[in-house]
Amino acid sequence: MKHLTLALSLIMISGCSLSQNPNIPNTALPQKSGISESEKLLLNDTWWENFHDRELNLFVQKVLAKNSDLKIATLQTMRFREFLNIKKSEQLPRIDAYGSASKTQSYMASFDKSFTYDQFELGAMASYEVDLWGKLKNTKMAAFEDMMRESYLRESIKQRIIADSIIAYFGIKNNTGIYRIAKEQYLNEKAFYAYMQDQYKAGLIRESDLLQEESLVQMFHDQMIKQKDILSSYKTAVAILLGEEPKDVYQSTYDIKSTRYSSSSLPVPSNLPSDILQRRADIQAAQAKVKSSAFLVSVAKSAFFPSISLSGTTGYVSGDLSRLITSNTSTYSAGGNILSPILDFGKIQADIKAAKLDQQIALLEYQDTVRKAFGEVKDSLHTYASNKQRLYSQEKRHQAISHKKRIIEKQYKEGFATYLELLETRKEEFEVALSKEAIKFETLKSAVELYVNLGGGFMADTKNKSTVVSRM
């Protein structure tokens, strides 16, 4: 009895030692990490509402409801959840019902005669694998981490789709504004050209000035056509993003109302959140892959140990179908099986090495993901701050040149300014207007990218996840 107890104890200790530690490294955060309480409120599930644009909110909701990539990611997550359910069921006993009917004819030489008899069976069979080494449990835990990884990847795809939709929205809005500027400038120059023609007919200006004005009109016309093409491309991109039908993609007539944005109207966090590791879905996905690979190493190691299974059947056997279910025809059986590897020519050892290599790869991918995440946050914080300063400077410049243009136009009509001064001022005002809109768009894009790199509205619920794992 003592020897049996000792043997069982050794078996249990061996089984416990199969569990692998994921060895996820601690990450040293920058000293200046942490955002204010008010800025924390900006990182929520609907962070795009911080731009205070009702039409944008409706647009994002529409994209999330229709986008095919997000639907595929959702179905992938559901698929991995069902795979987890399969692994859960493998830990439980399996019960099957069986039934059979047969007619047998045999020949007995001693009687020189054939005999025919019937046999009917009805019953239930139960089987159960004793998970002594934790193989089934570790397989299930690996499936759980795979499911979590897929859900995190879905969240990353969702945040990227949200960002793309916001950038596309602002792209249409911004380029609509640029197109209107170009069109308005063209119409103004066209009207001024008519004025110059009258001046030329009256002998008040030279022909070279008139030809210069005609060249300027055509330049603004070319710019207007160019901006119209860019706007059309953004509308096509939006139609594809929305998952529209081919005819809608071809027509692509999506219009957005104009909304004013300035360098001071974008509420965006200004620093790195202290919980950035939980706010980035890609980091959580990489971490889940590390954990899954550790469980799979344990599964591979368990192949060295014997597998034990229990089975039993109960039912009825009779040669007469009408008397099949009676006490005299009942039968049962119970037993156990043990299967242990003896010679496999190194297959198990190779499986373990392959699983360990997968674990090392997953760990390196996790570390690389963390490094890239912090690099993206640093760059996006810097880019947004720089673009915001550039936009503020360009807004001031546009105000100054617009005021100068009005003065020069008045002075030209009164004879106090030359045509060359007027020409240069109008060209500069147009270029600054386009530059201001372009920098505004870059600032909006950098604000969106900053939200995405900070994790958007995602936050890993590690507390509830731990509760789920403990219940499994």
How would you describe what is shown here?
With 472 residues, this protein is an alpha+beta fold. It has two domains: 33-91 and 134-305 and 347-471, Outer membrane efflux proteins (OEP), CATH 1.20.1600; 93-130 and 307-339, Outer membrane efflux proteins (OEP) (Single Sheet). 64% of the residues lie in helices and 12% in strands. It is built from twelve helices and four strands; from the N terminus they run ααααββαααααββααα. The protein has helices at 2-16, 37-40, 54-66, 68-89, 135-201, 207-241, 246-251, 276-279, 281-302, 347-413, 419-453, 462-471; strands spanning 94-108, 113-130, 307-318, 330-339. It has a four-stranded antiparallel sheet with strand order 1-2-3-4, with no helix packed on it. α4 runs antiparallel to α5 (135-201) and α10 (347-413) runs antiparallel to α11. The radius of gyration is 37 Å and the shape is elongated. It starts with a helix and ends with a helix.
